[in-house]
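Q: Joint fold for the lines below.
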Amino acid sequence: MKTSSKHYIGYDFMPLIYTPEEIIETIKMIGVQNLDVRTVTLGINLRDCCDSDLDKMKEKIFDKITRNAEKLVPIANQIQSKYGIPIVNKRISVTPVSIILGSALTTDFEESKNRAKEVALCLDRAAKKVKVDFVGGYSSIVYKDMTYADKVLIESVPQALANSETVCSSVMAASTKSGLNMDAVNVAARVIKETARLTPNGVGCCKFVVFANAPEDNPFMAGAFFGVGEGESAVNVGLSGPGVIKEVLQQNEGKPLNELAEEIKKMGFKITRVGQLIGKELARTLGVRFGIVDLSLAPTTVAGDSVAEILEGIGVESFGAPGSTAALALLVDAIKKGGMMAAENVGGLSGAFIPVSEDAGALRALERGSLCLEKLEAMSSVCSVGLDMVLLPGDIATETIAGIIADELMIGVMNNKATSVRIIPVPNKKAGDYVEFGGLLGKSKVMSVSSFVPRKFVERGGKIPAPVRSLTN
Amino acid sequence: MERELIVVTIIGLDKTGIVAAISNVLAKNNVNIEDISQTVLDKYFAMIMLVDISKSKISLEELQNKLSEKGAEMKLEIKVQHENIFKALHRI
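A: Joint structure:
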């Protein structure tokens, strides 16, 4: 043993030295600023579970998930204690179920919906058996057109979500290469209304998201699914560190924006390195491929763990007020620039989430009146996801929901990025009412929505063609 | 045998016997102290040890349990983390 005379510990002749400041900084990042690994998501390919016999298919699905994910939670817990950093959620994503569902359906649509629901319940049982909190991939990819199985699956979503706990569902209804499928958007809008009706306070809608350009390796719920270009399985990691970024802002009060961006970039690098370390070790121990690190900043309801507060820390008077879109763009870009160098593969949604009910700062902004639906839509053009965890009045017209979805998805289509809609029309609530979902889903105030209904527009159905990719003005 | 380095951080109000108590737990379990440093964190005392558990009979998890028991007894917060987390955060 030797005692350092200098402020370094470790061998002097080795590069392996940490200053006490570095060690204390790390401990503060985790303990005080809530740096955590938000999710490790094990993607599992279910394509080989196809069977014309529904019971056999369910058995194959259950076996494959439980066999592959058996050790996910215990190993994640071990890694969490080894490094002293919380891994908050352990999840599973699977091949979009509509792809495997077709083989086990009948020509009777109602009967087929029931069969689809049974597959959802099977996913739920498998998820519970391996003790993960969510399984994503009760999904359909329909940006161009819908197969019979796609129609069945999407129409079965309200029943599937109302009768399961862990299943998450998504519909990709638009892409830059194909345009927007308005028929699918109309079905999704109905599904949202129906899911809200079937679940207390419409909470089931928190597990359903409509996407444009959905990434196939996204680890975050509710939109996670394991894309068809993926292999047998992979571990994808999502990070979270709004509190850490907020600390950076506090230390750089009054500095010009470019200097601030530089400091955020450095912190983006550091937090992504943590994701890389955890993901790689988890994948190695599980014996699967390490997929990607998703560089998204994801808020929680915990005080200080808020993206809204970061924008306010950058200098915006209140989240959603003028300057918010610019500040958010600076933030997202800096995180990406820092993170890309820190991880082998970056993917998923990689941006910043602004799930309104899950962000304590967003609720305050709603109370102050600085945040409205239209500003959220504008901000989603520069960050990941879109209208996320937004509470709307229960009596909103289905056509209005379809119009909101179409608007949001076309922002993604035109800008070649992922956008999504996860809205909750809360039954029997009106604008200004409060709704508490509890836990990670948080609490929020119902937002007001335009009283003009785009009925004629959405009822046209059909498609909005893919956009031209030149003359980009 | 390759070293397996663990960072032990002890935070609490300064008092006599902290180094002795912690070192005792480490020595009993054949955990070698590679380096030791102290600093003041706000009003608290922080001692940081870099230890090697490669020759120890106990696992990292058992060491964590033993040290947190000792920590509870002496009203100290003790964190035991594998070195790689610091390497990931602070070294390219």
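Q: Anything notable?
A: Chain B touches chain A through 33 residues (CB under 8 Å). The helical segments of chain B are 18-28, 60-74, 84-90.
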